[in-house]
Protein backbone atom coordinates (compact mmCIF):
# COMPACT_ATOMS: atom_id res chain seq x y z
CA UNK A 1 0.00 0.00 0.00
CA UNK A 2 1.41 3.39 -1.00
CA UNK A 3 2.57 5.48 1.90
CA UNK A 4 3.53 2.55 4.11
CA UNK A 5 6.80 2.73 6.06
CA UNK A 6 8.58 -0.32 7.41
CA UNK A 7 11.93 -1.17 8.99
CA UNK A 8 14.31 -3.18 6.85
CA UNK A 9 17.87 -4.48 6.90
CA UNK A 10 19.95 -3.99 3.78
CA UNK A 11 22.96 -6.22 3.29
CA UNK A 12 25.59 -7.36 0.82
CA UNK A 13 23.10 -10.01 -0.31
CA UNK A 14 19.83 -8.07 -0.04
CA UNK A 15 17.16 -8.18 -2.74
CA UNK A 16 15.07 -5.27 -1.43
CA UNK A 17 17.17 -2.74 -3.35
CA UNK A 18 19.82 -2.98 -6.04
CA UNK A 19 23.25 -3.76 -4.55
CA UNK A 20 26.63 -3.24 -6.16
CA UNK A 21 29.78 -4.70 -4.57
CA UNK A 22 33.23 -3.38 -5.48
CA UNK A 23 36.84 -3.51 -4.35
CA UNK A 24 38.64 -0.46 -3.02
CA UNK A 25 41.47 1.09 -5.03
CA UNK A 26 45.04 0.62 -3.82
CA UNK A 27 47.04 2.38 -6.54
CA UNK A 28 46.40 5.12 -5.78
CA UNK A 29 44.89 4.33 -2.40
CA UNK A 30 41.73 6.37 -1.89
CA UNK A 31 38.15 6.18 -0.67
CA UNK A 32 36.25 3.83 -2.99
CA UNK A 33 32.59 2.87 -3.12
CA UNK A 34 32.68 -0.77 -2.00
CA UNK A 35 28.96 -1.33 -1.40
CA UNK A 36 26.15 0.73 -2.94
CA UNK A 37 22.39 0.61 -2.45
CA UNK A 38 20.23 1.94 -5.31
CA UNK A 39 16.51 2.55 -4.71
CA UNK A 40 14.49 0.56 -7.30
CA UNK A 41 11.22 1.52 -8.97
CA UNK A 42 9.04 -0.43 -6.52
CA UNK A 43 10.11 1.73 -3.53
CA UNK A 44 9.44 5.41 -2.86
CA UNK A 45 12.55 6.01 -0.76
CA UNK A 46 14.99 4.54 1.75
CA UNK A 47 15.93 6.37 4.95
CA UNK A 48 19.10 5.93 6.98
CA UNK A 49 19.48 7.68 10.34
CA UNK A 50 22.83 6.81 11.90
CA UNK A 51 21.60 7.56 15.42
CA UNK A 52 18.87 4.95 15.03
CA UNK A 53 20.28 2.52 12.47
CA UNK A 54 23.37 0.45 13.34
CA UNK A 55 25.88 -0.87 10.81
CA UNK A 56 27.35 -4.37 11.05
CA UNK A 57 30.49 -4.82 8.98
CA UNK A 58 33.07 -7.62 8.81
CA UNK A 59 35.54 -6.65 6.06
CA UNK A 60 38.15 -9.22 5.01
CA UNK A 61 41.02 -9.29 2.59
CA UNK A 62 42.84 -12.30 1.13
CA UNK A 63 46.44 -13.51 0.73
CA UNK A 64 47.78 -16.62 -0.97
CA UNK A 65 50.73 -18.63 0.33
CA UNK A 66 52.65 -21.77 -0.50
CA UNK A 67 54.02 -24.20 2.07
CA UNK A 68 57.55 -22.80 1.56
CA UNK A 69 56.35 -19.43 2.87
CA UNK A 70 55.72 -20.91 6.31
CA UNK A 71 58.27 -21.27 9.10
CA UNK A 72 57.26 -24.09 11.46
CA UNK A 73 53.66 -23.61 10.41
CA UNK A 74 53.73 -19.83 10.87
CA UNK A 75 53.38 -17.03 8.34
CA UNK A 76 52.95 -13.25 8.63
CA UNK A 77 50.05 -11.49 6.93
CA UNK A 78 49.92 -7.91 5.67
CA UNK A 79 46.68 -7.13 7.48
CA UNK A 80 46.78 -5.77 11.01
CA UNK A 81 45.14 -8.52 13.07
CA UNK A 82 43.31 -7.85 16.31
CA UNK A 83 41.23 -9.81 18.83
CA UNK A 84 37.50 -9.80 18.11
CA UNK A 85 35.64 -7.83 20.79
CA UNK A 86 38.72 -8.31 22.99
CA UNK A 87 38.64 -12.11 22.66
CA UNK A 88 41.97 -13.62 21.61
CA UNK A 89 40.85 -17.28 21.53
CA UNK A 90 39.51 -18.09 18.06
CA UNK A 91 37.03 -20.62 19.43
CA UNK A 92 35.36 -17.92 21.50
CA UNK A 93 35.34 -15.18 18.86
CA UNK A 94 32.05 -14.01 17.36
CA UNK A 95 33.72 -14.49 13.98
CA UNK A 96 37.32 -15.65 13.38
CA UNK A 97 40.04 -13.03 12.98
CA UNK A 98 41.40 -15.12 10.11
CA UNK A 99 40.07 -18.00 8.01
CA UNK A 100 42.42 -20.45 6.24
CA UNK A 101 41.53 -22.67 3.26
CA UNK A 102 43.51 -25.39 1.46
CA UNK A 103 43.15 -24.36 -2.19
CA UNK A 104 43.94 -27.88 -3.37
CA UNK A 105 41.13 -29.61 -1.49
CA UNK A 106 38.85 -26.65 -0.80
CA UNK A 107 38.77 -27.63 2.86
CA UNK A 108 39.09 -25.16 5.70
CA UNK A 109 42.37 -25.45 7.63
CA UNK A 110 42.44 -25.16 11.41
CA UNK A 111 44.26 -22.13 12.78
CA UNK A 112 46.33 -23.14 15.79
CA UNK A 113 47.10 -19.64 17.04
CA UNK A 114 47.52 -15.97 16.17
CA UNK A 115 50.25 -13.63 17.35
CA UNK A 116 48.37 -10.33 17.22
CA UNK A 117 51.47 -8.27 17.97
CA UNK A 118 53.37 -9.68 14.98
CA UNK A 119 50.36 -10.38 12.70
CA UNK A 120 51.48 -14.00 12.48
CA UNK A 121 49.18 -16.96 11.87
CA UNK A 122 50.10 -20.54 12.82
CA UNK A 123 48.25 -23.42 11.16
CA UNK A 124 47.85 -26.88 12.67
CA UNK A 125 48.82 -28.40 9.31
CA UNK A 126 50.28 -26.52 6.33
CA UNK A 127 48.96 -27.55 2.89
CA UNK A 128 50.87 -27.07 -0.37
CA UNK A 129 48.85 -23.94 -1.14
CA UNK A 130 46.62 -21.96 1.18
CA UNK A 131 44.52 -18.82 1.16
CA UNK A 132 44.22 -16.74 4.31
CA UNK A 133 41.29 -14.38 4.79
CA UNK A 134 42.18 -11.98 7.63
CA UNK A 135 39.97 -9.19 8.87
CA UNK A 136 40.69 -5.64 7.72
CA UNK A 137 41.31 -3.26 10.60
CA UNK A 138 43.39 -0.51 8.94
CA UNK A 139 41.48 2.16 7.09
CA UNK A 140 38.28 4.18 7.31
CA UNK A 141 34.63 3.98 6.26
CA UNK A 142 32.62 6.90 4.89
CA UNK A 143 29.03 7.26 3.67
CA UNK A 144 28.10 9.32 0.62
CA UNK A 145 24.94 9.96 -1.40
CA UNK A 146 24.63 10.09 -5.20
CA UNK A 147 21.74 11.39 -7.29
CA UNK A 148 20.03 9.64 -10.21
CA UNK A 149 22.81 10.80 -12.52
CA UNK A 150 25.43 9.28 -10.20
CA UNK A 151 26.66 12.73 -9.20
CA UNK A 152 27.99 12.99 -5.61
CA UNK A 153 25.74 14.82 -3.15
CA UNK A 154 28.23 14.92 -0.29
CA UNK A 155 29.31 12.73 2.59
CA UNK A 156 27.05 12.28 5.61
CA UNK A 157 29.92 13.06 7.99
CA UNK A 158 33.30 14.62 7.11
CA UNK A 159 35.51 12.19 9.02
CA UNK A 160 35.94 8.50 8.32
CA UNK A 161 35.00 5.80 10.82
CA UNK A 162 37.98 3.54 11.71
CA UNK A 163 37.54 -0.05 10.52
CA UNK A 164 39.12 -1.48 13.66
CA UNK A 165 36.18 -0.19 15.68
CA UNK A 166 33.91 -2.77 14.06
CA UNK A 167 36.07 -5.53 15.51
CA UNK A 168 36.19 -3.90 18.94
CA UNK A 169 32.50 -4.53 19.63
CA UNK A 170 30.09 -7.47 19.72
CA UNK A 171 28.19 -6.09 16.76
CA UNK A 172 25.12 -8.32 17.11
CA UNK A 173 24.68 -7.71 20.84
CA UNK A 174 22.02 -5.21 21.90
CA UNK A 175 23.64 -2.13 23.36
CA UNK A 176 26.93 -2.85 21.61
CA UNK A 177 25.87 -1.89 18.09
CA UNK A 178 28.00 0.35 15.89
CA UNK A 179 26.36 3.65 14.96
CA UNK A 180 28.00 6.07 12.54
CA UNK A 181 27.05 9.72 11.97
CA UNK A 182 24.62 11.44 9.63
CA UNK A 183 21.24 11.11 7.98
CA UNK A 184 20.08 10.44 4.43
CA UNK A 185 16.83 9.77 2.60
CA UNK A 186 17.37 8.77 -1.00
CA UNK A 187 14.64 8.38 -3.60
CA UNK A 188 14.14 6.19 -6.66
CA UNK A 189 17.28 5.74 -8.75
CA UNK A 190 19.41 7.48 -6.11
CA UNK A 191 22.26 5.71 -4.35
CA UNK A 192 23.74 5.55 -0.87
CA UNK A 193 27.32 4.32 -0.99
CA UNK A 194 29.63 3.10 1.76
CA UNK A 195 33.26 3.85 0.91
CA UNK A 196 36.51 2.65 2.42
CA UNK A 197 40.07 3.90 2.26
CA UNK A 198 42.39 1.07 3.30
CA UNK A 199 45.86 -0.35 2.54
CA UNK A 200 44.41 -3.82 1.88
CA UNK A 201 41.76 -4.67 -0.70
CA UNK A 202 38.38 -5.90 0.45
CA UNK A 203 37.22 -9.26 -0.92
CA UNK A 204 33.48 -9.97 -1.17
CA UNK A 205 33.47 -13.37 -2.87
CA UNK A 206 36.04 -16.05 -3.56
CA UNK A 207 35.63 -19.54 -4.94
CA UNK A 208 37.58 -21.16 -2.10
CA UNK A 209 35.94 -19.38 0.83
CA UNK A 210 33.73 -21.73 2.90
CA UNK A 211 30.76 -19.31 2.91
CA UNK A 212 29.01 -17.50 0.08
CA UNK A 213 30.58 -14.18 1.02
CA UNK A 214 34.04 -13.42 2.41
CA UNK A 215 33.09 -9.99 3.76
CA UNK A 216 29.66 -9.13 5.15
CA UNK A 217 27.77 -5.86 5.58
CA UNK A 218 24.38 -4.97 7.08
CA UNK A 219 22.67 -1.66 7.79
CA UNK A 220 19.24 -1.07 9.31
CA UNK A 221 17.01 1.40 7.45
CA UNK A 222 13.39 2.35 6.91
CA UNK A 223 11.78 2.05 3.51
CA UNK A 224 8.83 3.86 1.98
CA UNK A 225 6.52 1.68 -0.10
Protein architecture, described:
This protein has 225 residues and is mainly beta. It folds into 2 domains: 5-57 and 136-224, Jelly Rolls (Sandwich), CATH 2.60.120; 63-134, no CATH class. Helices cover 2% and strands 40% of the residues. The chain has 1 helix and 18 strands. The protein has one helix spanning 164-168; strands spanning 5-11, 18-21, 32-38, 45-49, 55-58, 63-66, 74-76, 98-102, 108-109, 111-115, 120-123, 129-134, 140-146, 152-155, 161-162, 183-187, 191-197, 216-224. It starts with a strand and ends with a strand.
What topology does this entry show?
Layout: E1 5-11, E2 18-21, E3 32-38, E4 45-49, E5 55-58, E6 63-66, E7 74-76, E8 98-102, E9 108-109, E10 111-115, E11 120-123, E12 129-134, E13 140-146, E14 152-155, E15 161-162, H1 164-168, E16 183-187, E17 191-197, E18 216-224
Antiparallel strand pairs: 1-18, 2-3, 3-17, 4-16, 4-18, 5-18, 6-12, 7-11, 8-9, 8-12, 10-11, 13-14, 13-15, 13-17
Percent of residues in helices: under 10%
Q: Give the terminus-to-terminus CA distance.
A: 7 Å
Strand content: 35-45%
Q: Gyration radius, to the nearest Å?
A: 19 Å
Please summarize the sheet with the most strands: 6 strands, antiparallel
**Which second-level CATH architecture of the largest domain applies?**
Sandwich
CATH fold name of the largest domain, please? Jelly Rolls
How would you describe this structure in keywords?
single chain; 225 residues; mainly beta; Jelly Rolls; five-stranded antiparallel sheet
Amino acid sequence: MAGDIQPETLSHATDDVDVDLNQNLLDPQRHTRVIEFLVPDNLEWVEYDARRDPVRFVPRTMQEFESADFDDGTVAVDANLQPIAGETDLEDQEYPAVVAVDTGTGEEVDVESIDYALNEVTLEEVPDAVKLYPIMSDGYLKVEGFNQFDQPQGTLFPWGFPLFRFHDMEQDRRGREINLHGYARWDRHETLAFKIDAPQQIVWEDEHYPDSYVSTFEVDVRIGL
